[in-house]
Amino acid sequence: MNSSFDPTNAERIESLKAAILAGLSLSLTYCAIALLHLLLLPTQSPVLSLLDFQVDFTLLIKVAIAFLSGFLFGVTYRYAIREDQNPQLKAGVVLAFGLVRGLAVIEGQPHITDTLWVWGILVIESLIEFAIARFTLDWAIHRRWLKPFSLWGSSD
After folding, report:
1. How many Å apart are CA 52 and CA 58, to the nearest integer?
2. What span, in angstroms and rounded, lies between the C-alpha atoms of 69 and 63?
3. Around Cβ 10, how many Cβ atoms within 10 Å?
4. Nearest CA to 30 among 53, 57, 50, 56?
5. Three-state SS at 53
6. Cα 142 vs. chain centroid, distance in angstroms?
7. For each of the chain's 156 residues, which pLDDT tens digit applies?
8. Is 137 in contact with 67 (CB distance < 8 Å)?
9. 7: which of 44, 48, 75, 132 lies 20 to 30 Å off by Cα?
10. Is 115 exposed, middle or buried (0-12, 13-18, 19+ CB in 10 A)?
């Protein structure tokens, strides 16, 4: 057995498919949450201004960042879970990415330090976004549209 890591072109293509699928899933989920914010949240409250979404160029940048986050998640998730069916491993990848994304928003907003429930909403939304991306990838793997990463070469 060769211990050096040398992904084949087929593995790279599968990783690219996972990355694009997770990126699309996460960005669409982000857009759905943004739409819910527009429809359900009053924008008069300064505390809720962090949750406020404006339909403009900034939203496009945020969607692009969500896509990139999902893209990176897709590659990492595929390599992390490999052919393993360990639910803790799968949840751990979601938790790691969700917390980093959710807490990064909080870190950049020092004026909300006294509003713990807004922090909770931001982190929960981020966890939901990555959980949906995870289930999308799991679904694609189950349907055999996407292959899990294999340490032993192609599983064809």
Report:
1. 12
2. 10
3. 13
4. 53
5. coil
6. 19
7. 455 556 688 888 999 999 999 999 999 999 999 888 777 766 555 555 555 555 667 888 989 999 999 999 999 999 898 877 788 999 999 999 999 998 887 777 666 656 777 788 889 999 999 999 999 999 999 999 998 887 655 544
8. no
9. 132
10. middle
Quick one: tokens of 66? 């969500």
DSSP symbol at 111:
G
78 touches 111 (CB < 8 A): no
Return the structure tokens found at 12: 């790279």
Residue with the two structure tokens 């990555």:
130
Q: Which two tokens stand for residue 108?
A: 């950049």
Task: Give the position of tokens 């679904």.
Answer: 139
Cβ contacts of 97 within 8 Å, gap of 6 or more = 69, 72, 73, 76, 130
pTM metric for this prediction: 0.81
| Angstrom distances, CA of residue 99 to CA of 49, 74, 121, 124, 151 | 21, 16, 12, 9, 28
Place of tokens 């890591």: 5
Q: Which residues of 67-98 are buried (b: 16+ CB within 10 A; e: fewer)?
A: bebbbebbbbbbebbeeeeeeeebeebbeebb
